[in-house]
Amino acid sequence: MIDVLLVAVAEVPAETLAAAARNFEGMNVRLRLASFAGTDGLPDSPLLAERRSFAQSSAALGRKLAASAAKAPAPKRAWTHAQRDAWLLRHARKSKVLVALDAQAVYTVWHLARVNTSAHACYGVAAAVRAVTDRRERPGYYTRTDFVNALPSPKAAVRAAASRTRRLPKAVARRAIGPRVLRTDPGARAWRMAVGAPGLPENVRFRLAKRVGDGLRKANRPSGAVLTFNAAAEQTREPRHRADLLRTAAQLELKRGQVPARLDDAVAAESACADLSWRKGNGKAAAASLARGMELAFHRVLHFDRTESPMAGDPGAYLAALHSGAAFTAMTAASGRAEPAAAPPSDRPLRLLFVTRKNANFLTEIRDRYEDRADVEVRSLDITNEPPLDALVKSPARMAAFRLGADPAFGHTVEDHLRPHLDWADTVFIDWCTGPAVLFTAVDPGTTRIVVRLHSFETFSVWPFLTDFSRADDVVFVGAHLRDLTVAAVPALRGSGSAPALHVIPNAMDLGRYDRPKSDDARFTVGLTGISAVAKDPRWALAVLKLLRASDDRYRLFLIGADVDGSLSLAARAYAAAYEKEVAALESSGAARRLGQLSDVPAALAGIGVIMSSSVRESFHCGFVEGAASGAVPVSRNWPFFADKPNGAHTLFPAEWLAATPQEAADRILALTGTEEVWRAAASEAAAHARSAWDWPVVANAFDALLLSPSTLLSPSTSPSAEGGESTEIRAFQP
């Protein structure tokens, strides 16, 4: 009896199988059918001994192989399944005729014939019938040839050995780089040394480093993964591979709330990749590298979720790798405007457009003032109400590509949506130097005047570098210290020519509504407003409270606003946890009280006799100034980010308001609240100063000069950090 194995990949119609069986009638054969499509519904036949589907489950193949097979052409996909079916392989070895019933099955039959070299391999039933007939007519010949062909083939042996040799290192590596090995100190150390060993080919080192690093992460050894990526980067010269390794290491450290050990190298590596792509004319690749580098340099863990920032001391040094890059220089180059901004109209009201994205909290008094004027027509635009524009704001990489001339579609979209607003407005006031500032300076504004106001966080972000300041006429800062820091960080704001005029104008605040009588027990109540950000550093205020209560346990601290948000990063979570532990202990003794978000802050301030600013940095700190205007004695930390700079809290506030340490703050509070008379006198003096310097009727004059009569602005004065540039400093009151 001759065994015949029929192999089908496509579905076998019932009539086709019946016809095939009839062709073999009377030939003393035993048929077996292996079908990839399944065998349900096929008719029975006396000649058909067995039928079976050789399709494997995803679990049997494994996740990666199943995904790979799903993408392969049908013939290769079928063989991937067939070679893992023991029944099919067993009968392929003992069958004398192997038959592909369809074209897609030929590939599988060809592989099976390499396993059984003595068998006939046929395509189609007719060829199979001829092979069976020949075997029946010449049995002696096939007895000899089958014996010879059954001996091991040298070529087949070589192929099998080569295949096993290729598979062996992969199998060994999978086990050796698995979490079980990498959880041990010797295993982790050995692989780190292997990855950093000299002489490995670049591609091999890169792939191996990725596998070892991923294995260490899965083994819960993130520090080992960081060391591995950095060690591999040290031996890697290919720019893209080196940048990927350094960035991956830096991202791991940032995820753990740490400042990356090789942050500067990671940013420099991405800048170098951007320069290579830029020189090759690939603007999109250059933009992607710049976006990755800036994402690292301005990660929130570095500047917002800790009480320190690596940029605060020397912005120029911190950003040197970006500043010196050719692609970065091209991205931040001035596009300029075709015409200067026109003078305010004399024959009709000034058309003033206020632009924000979600946050218009600091525009209320300003917008109300000009909406009430007959000589000003006001409109407002929130970018979130323009979905196509808002989608662009969420992609710094696209913004960078546009600045590099590699994404003209970006410019067309912005032009289509903003041109009607620019054609209408005489002046556009953009609050916050974020996405909207980038959009409005992405197109030529014509004769429309562009004013951008920067508060604080923007300085520690990518936005000022994506904004084309050559198309902005004026940039407003709420504090001279923020102006100095931003100018030092952003080259486009320095010098003359295309740089905009720089102004310092305090925030708009209606301080009159805080003038309310103090409660009887306010003298011993210290207040702190706005504590949700780590930069507010409320733990500093808790340290002051402990010192106060060591002298007099009547002192207590009221915390106004949402609690510290620990959900933003591991670094923020660590700070929030330490704060929660300390404040909970003080709450239990009645020393501290969290008031949460309040709808009537002036009423709450009526019960507060001392107002504190505990922040490490601020742009202006409205809550602190409002507390001073309410008649609370002001005590501000000399904001550490700016304490050693020409401008800071020490130039914004009177010197007697400041304290460098918790002990100094406690001493000032104890001295000024020692008696009712001393406290009320100090509070009255502070309130008078706050209202005369920062109340809205005073500051409004500076906004009138800026927005309505730009020709009346004060003469420029040299900015101490502008490296020779000039700025206009508009201050309603010089303390």
Question: Could you describe the 3D structure shown?
Answer:
This protein has 35 helices and 19 strands. With 735 residues, it is an alpha/beta fold. The protein has a 6-stranded parallel β-sheet, with helices on both faces. A 6-stranded parallel β-sheet has the order 14-13-12-15-16-17, with helices on both faces. A 5-stranded parallel β-sheet has the order 3-2-1-4-5, sandwiched between helices. Helix 28 links the parallel strand 12 and strand 13. The model is unreliable at 160-169, 714-728 and 730-735 (pLDDT under 50).
- Strands ordered across the widest β-sheet: 7-6-8-9-10-11
How many strands appear in the DSSP assignment?
19
Shape: elongated
Number of helices: 35
**Helix fraction?**
40-55%
End-to-end separation in angstroms reads 111 Å
Strand content: 5-15%
Structural class designation: alpha/beta
Major sheet description: 6 strands, parallel
- What Rg, in angstroms, do the CA atoms define? 38 Å
Residue-averaged pLDDT, rounded? 89
Low-confidence residue ranges: 160-169, 714-728, 730-735
Task: Give a brief rundown of this model.
This protein has 735 residues and is an alpha/beta fold.
